[in-house]
Amino acid sequence: MINRFLEVRNQSEILCEPLLIEDYSVQASEFVSPPKWHLAHVTWFWEEFVLTKFDPNYTPYNEEFSFLFNSYYNNVGKRVLRPVRGLMTRPSVQEVYSYRRFVTEAIVNLLSTKLDKEVLDIIEIGINHEQQHQELFVYDIKYILGNQPTFPTYGTGFTPKAINQATEFLKVDSGVYDIGHQGADFSFDNELGNHKVYVTDFEISNNLVSNKEYLEFIEAGGYKDFNFWHDEGWSWINENKIQAPLYWHKIEGEWWNYTLQGLQKVDLTLPVMHLSFYEAFAYSQWKGQRLPTEFEWEIASDKFDWGQLWEWTYSAYLPYPNFSKSPGALGEYNGKFMVNQMVLRGGSVATAAGHSRKTYRNFFHPNMRWQYNGIRLVK
Amino acid sequence: MINRFLEVRNQSEILCEPLLIEDYSVQASEFVSPPKWHLAHVTWFWEEFVLTKFDPNYTPYNEEFSFLFNSYYNNVGKRVLRPVRGLMTRPSVQEVYSYRRFVTEAIVNLLSTKLDKEVLDIIEIGINHEQQHQELFVYDIKYILGNQPTFPTYGTGFTPKAINQATEFLKVDSGVYDIGHQGADFSFDNELGNHKVYVTDFEISNNLVSNKEYLEFIEAGGYKDFNFWHDEGWSWINENKIQAPLYWHKIEGEWWNYTLQGLQKVDLTLPVMHLSFYEAFAYSQWKGQRLPTEFEWEIASDKFDWGQLWEWTYSAYLPYPNFSKSPGALGEYNGKFMVNQMVLRGGSVATAAGHSRKTYRNFFHPNMRWQYNGIRLVK
Amino acid sequence: MINRFLEVRNQSEILCEPLLIEDYSVQASEFVSPPKWHLAHVTWFWEEFVLTKFDPNYTPYNEEFSFLFNSYYNNVGKRVLRPVRGLMTRPSVQEVYSYRRFVTEAIVNLLSTKLDKEVLDIIEIGINHEQQHQELFVYDIKYILGNQPTFPTYGTGFTPKAINQATEFLKVDSGVYDIGHQGADFSFDNELGNHKVYVTDFEISNNLVSNKEYLEFIEAGGYKDFNFWHDEGWSWINENKIQAPLYWHKIEGEWWNYTLQGLQKVDLTLPVMHLSFYEAFAYSQWKGQRLPTEFEWEIASDKFDWGQLWEWTYSAYLPYPNFSKSPGALGEYNGKFMVNQMVLRGGSVATAAGHSRKTYRNFFHPNMRWQYNGIRLVK
Amino acid sequence: MINRFLEVRNQSEILCEPLLIEDYSVQASEFVSPPKWHLAHVTWFWEEFVLTKFDPNYTPYNEEFSFLFNSYYNNVGKRVLRPVRGLMTRPSVQEVYSYRRFVTEAIVNLLSTKLDKEVLDIIEIGINHEQQHQELFVYDIKYILGNQPTFPTYGTGFTPKAINQATEFLKVDSGVYDIGHQGADFSFDNELGNHKVYVTDFEISNNLVSNKEYLEFIEAGGYKDFNFWHDEGWSWINENKIQAPLYWHKIEGEWWNYTLQGLQKVDLTLPVMHLSFYEAFAYSQWKGQRLPTEFEWEIASDKFDWGQLWEWTYSAYLPYPNFSKSPGALGEYNGKFMVNQMVLRGGSVATAAGHSRKTYRNFFHPNMRWQYNGIRLVK
After folding, report:
1. Is residue B318 packed enough to be buried (19+ CB in 10 Å), middle (13-18) or exposed (0-12)?
2. Which of these, B78, B76, B185, lies nearest to B128 by C-alpha position?
3. Between A and D, how many residue pairs show a Cβ–Cβ distance under 8 A?
């Protein structure tokens, strides 16, 4: 456990290596958090939910940090509001690293003692929590750099694989299936409540939709015909003047997109990414097909490769039967978001190794598209 | 069919009898439509989808009205945007009534001829459409009058029955059930695609939640403890300073509410009404129970009385398997709203007689509460 | 005095003759008030500042009306906020007329008694106040009708005279001049404090700028070159997509404008009207001339005809030396608006007969243009 | 000239010495600019208006910087919009310093050659421009640090002197006075056009208003009585919940304020600062006195000490007679702001040495209060 813990802690810092000090503090949009905040917040999580609860000798690094780096746990006191996270130039990046070392060491010490299951379970959550923020970090740094006039480069990596097989539709039979997490391994509370779901037969694609295919939709006027769109999606693309995936730029008649390696021509062999649910839905309508439900996806997921990009489903993020939230502040982790969001399944090239699984329920509002997502169709 | 048609047309005008001319044009909020607009819009619907399509001799009453009274059918040309509906003082109320008579007569003439199924189906939709607007009219006139400083009275009626039986929870067994509309009777496209759903066993209340019970929630500090709320619900009540159902006013220590009969003391025996989904959910959390899914509701609906108030379910408004929207402009009726809304089931005292059924799927955004809705719990 | 009072009261109602009941209640923009509100508010003013103060036998028509029809007199209790004035369908138009008759009669009775100067002074203010609202009524009804898709007609009148003399610039010498109201006649408090102002010599046009001249500015790209504009004016025209005076519409290559007689081709011989201060300034810059100060205007006003349109000056609305506001609620009449507004001088075809004079200081925010205004230049 | 130039350039960097890298990029409000941006923008000004125009051998440091660091000169191409200045993490602080060195050296080289008056005049403007940004830098860093939850300290300095003389009112006689800049020394275009102004006799205080006096206003309920306020001021304090000067905090019954030395108890002997024009006006109303006009201030300024804080006048920022803006982009310096702003006169402890003079016209919108300002009264 110590090794796994240290590896995850270390990974958060490896991700920051390409950054300048200047990159750490900025909040490029309300839904983006500054890298410094991610580093400190996950550390605060360890402090708040593990150290102050289970280590009687622990003295917090700085009492103020609980106020500064709480994200949304109302049960743990006041918190800095999301839109002003990017205005906190202090504490410095250096001090945040020092805070990290302090807390990492304290956890290592704690892990060297005999711990009961309750603590180990929360440490498992802490590890998964930090991994989630590692993925958000990738989304956020791409947004921070990709919205600057100079399009700076982050470095290598985080590119999905090209699609290199012919598209086939895989059949799944009608029937009652088991849904949700089973077994003793870690899962979040929103996956629990293993239960039965009846599914009508369907066919699901072995491939994600490619940039090439999505470009056909654009060129066929897909963004100009309201018949393909939800009413809210149509308002949303018009109000925000959206005509292509996020990070795409038409420059002198050619499509480029910003990647962590800088501005590049759109690679037609790659899966299309950075779409809102509205766009994924409109594409499916234009194609005369549809998005899978999260149940269809989970049932069929053994038949195809996944993990390059999170996949929008046409399922709202709702509680499973008999869902019950954890007691205390950790109960705020998932349940309170179960309205107005859509489920994504799978994982992405930005997901920490081993973090996801086929029952994993990711979720975002339908207009969000800075996350690493793509489209898989059903017919 | 002629009689049924005339009855429905007449009912729209009966509802307007208590109105002053001044009441017809105002739009008290973006989600409210002026009474005059309702009267004209349903008439335009008959003109646009029946008369201009199937009566070769029909000349529109006034070409401009298509522009003025289209609601959201993008396929039928430009439309007046929702927020400015209340600024159209012309055409006058008198002219709108004249427009109604002109169109009613033309439909009656058409109905006197031999019509094929395609036309009759659309006439059936037209009747149901006008009934839907009759219900919206009740919501809207209550909002228009109930938000004025003088609290004017509309008239009698539209009050749900008192709860007069002890609360019991009715058991339903696990199993695969049929869901959705079957048979030849009219239904909307969103109810179609009869399909199987597996449901875990549950128990559902025979009663709606009463004002008395809801008041206990208020007095127990339900609006002050974020643990009962969705994150978005918590923001919503705080930003809008919401501490009670819509139309409730605390006056010198006592709760009053605005009804169509004027401002009255809250009647504790009546079912609580005018809640957002957020509030319905928070109440269920506080009670340690939950809202039913729309499938649970439909399966159990033969076991209890319903029809006093629409009932919030914890189901998002999503397409049934094999949902397909109608061709042409009528295809805009339902499908394009299937995101970010929650399903309500049942019917209300403001619903036109015979308009609803147990498979009927009503839907609203989770923050809407001017509609006639209530809470039924499951455990 | 009785005759003058009755004439003014009557004039408010004559202005409403062309209206339908439907036109009385609508508030087409936040800066517009519904006609019904104007009729009731001026009546409330008589009730509040004359009858309840000086007629010991007076019983208010309806206690609630003080709350409903106060405009901005904080000293006289709560008031209905401006943006919701258009949502009050009650009291009815009929009742407002009955309220008017009740108050008119009470004032006539009071005027039949012997009154001291204090009362007569306030009655004089009441008359001028009602006249001001008569002018606002014309602006507002034009806005209400002119922003409807059907462009309904109000009736005849309220059109400025064509410009029928060659433009000349009239010289005024440098020197110290007297500014402000003198003598015993009525004036508002903002004109008082007759004082000296030193003015450098200047030349002022005998004509207002014509539609023909303003069209040259438009066609020369005046709305596209930021060099002519204030920084705020440039933002304002871009945010609001403004490219011509209010009520102008380019239809199939030709300029039309909405008048109270309906939509008509722009008459090139008329003075240009319905401009913001920003546009008036930009035009002057393009022309290489400038707007007069309010002092220049007052000094020169005996040399030219005025009264067709209020004339923007390049003077901010500030207190004269030794300005002192009236005691009590009437002190809120003018002084509290002396920031962020610009002075207009003269009068317009919508101004009540005899209401204005050369020392009269009208004022509006620089982005307002629904009032009857025009441009006179200085070089 | 070389020495003066180098001294001013150096001073900009001295001001940054207490900063962490993290402090350089943040934009704490729309009206605040990041320190990095100030450093780069003033450098761009030298490059754009001096080097590229007058040094034929000059090659810009980086072509992109003109786009990044232009503030509002529409004549010089596209510019980064104000609200996103704080999102540019690149170029780095280090690179901005390198840019500064590059440009400073190029100007020094240019200054070593024989230059004609045109160039020297623009260099003079460049020096004054950089000094203006030094003052804005002080306002901005105070805002950046003073709005963080941890109230970090900047360092010493920038505190006005205590008031240590009894308040007297100094008499000035009526008469015609000369206003505006005269002579060959540098001034901005908005001070030019020396002209005569007639002023009525008045008496002006020898002291600024103190914290002690302003506290009396607060404690007398000054923020709760609309009679002291402009209508817009009253809305502004209520919408923004303003009840004290900027940076004041009531902590356990005592008033503290944030200073560049950290959070300190309010020092009653110091002049009150960080007020909006609305507050300055309300204070004067409560006191039964008034703010001076800018002409009164200029005429009387030889009679009292000034320079601790900019002083709000009750004069709008308008052009002097015969004002003409400079040709080309420098013409955008002042004229286009002459609407909706109020004039402040004097100077402050944050003003660069020798930068101001008695004819200097500073200006801000009436709701701005992060600048170093105070109140002097007239009666």
Report:
1. buried
2. B185
3. 85
Percent share of chain B, pLDDT over 70: 99
| Residue numbers in chain D where pLDDT is lower than 70 | 83
The reply to whether residue B89 touches residue C64, judged by beta carbons under 8 angstroms, is no
Q: Domains in chain D, please, with CATH?
A: 2-146 (1.20.120), 169-374 (3.90.1580.10)
Distance from the Cα of B114 to chain A's closest Cα (Å) equals 33
CA distance C17 to C21: 10
Phi, psi dihedrals of residue B122, rounded to the nearest 5°: -75, -35
Token pair of A126, please? 């802490």
Chain C interface, Cβ < 8 Å to D: 72, 74-75, 174, 176, 195-198, 200, 226-227, 229-234, 277-278, 281, 290, 314-316, 318-319, 321-322, 331, 336-340, 342, 366
Return mean pLDDT, chain C: 95
The pLDDT of residue D73 is 76
ipTM over 0.90: yes
- Residue to mutate among B33, B89, B263, with most C CBs inside 10 A, is B89
Q: Give the chain C residue whose CA is nearest to the CA of D364.
A: C340
Element holding A76 (H helix, E strand): none
Contact between residue D156 and residue D261 where contact means Cβ atoms under 8 Å apart: yes
Element (H or E) spanning A300, and its range?
helix A294-300
Say whether pLDDT at C332 is over 80. no
Q: Which residues contact A227 (CB under 8 A, 6 or more apart)?
A: A285, B74, B75, B331
By C-alpha distance, the chain B residue nearest C79 is B149
- Do the Cβ atoms of A87 and D144 come within 8 Å? yes
Neighbors of chain B by Cβ distance (3+ pairs < 8 Å)? A, C
**Chain C residues inside the 8 Å CB shell of D227:** 74-75, 331
Residue A208 has what DSSP assignment? P
- Best probe of the B interface among A339, A341, A378, A379, by most B CBs < 10 A, is A339
Which residues of chain B lie closer than 8 angstroms to C93, CB-CB? 21-22
d(CA A363, CA A334): 10
Pairing of strands A362-364, D310-316: unpaired
Q: Is the pLDDT of residue C83 over 70?
A: no
**CA distances (Å), origin D221, targets C312, D248, D283, D370:** 38, 16, 11, 23
Peptide bond into C91 cis (omega under 30): yes
Subunit contact A22:D152, Cβ cutoff 8 A: no
Interface mutation target, options B227, B278, B323, B338, chain A, most CBs of A under 10 Å: B227
Cis bond before residue A91 (omega within 30° of 0) = yes
Apex CA C214: angle with CA C212 and CA C215, to 5°?
65
Q: How many CA atoms lie less than 13 Å away from C258 in the CB half-sphere?
A: 21
CA atoms of B128 and B60, how far apart (whole Å): 22
Distance (Å, rounded) from C-alpha C270 to C-alpha C275? Answer: 14
Which of these, C104, C11, C1, C2, lies nearest to C352 by C-alpha position?
Answer: C11
Do the Cβ atoms of B154 and B303 come closer than 8 Å?
no
In chain A, which residues have their Cβ closer than 8 Å to the Cβ of B227?
Answer: 74-75, 331
C189's CB contacts (< 8 A; 6+ apart) are: C323, C324, C325, C326, C333, C334, C335
Q: What is the pLDDT of chain D when averaged over all its residues?
A: 95
The pLDDT of residue B202 is 98
- Of C370, C344, C159, residue with least CA distance to C266: C159
Report the sign of the C-alpha dihedral through residues B272, B277, B278, B284, in that order: positive
Token representation of residue B319: 């397409």
Chain C residues whose CB is inside 8 A of the D198 CB are: 176, 196-198
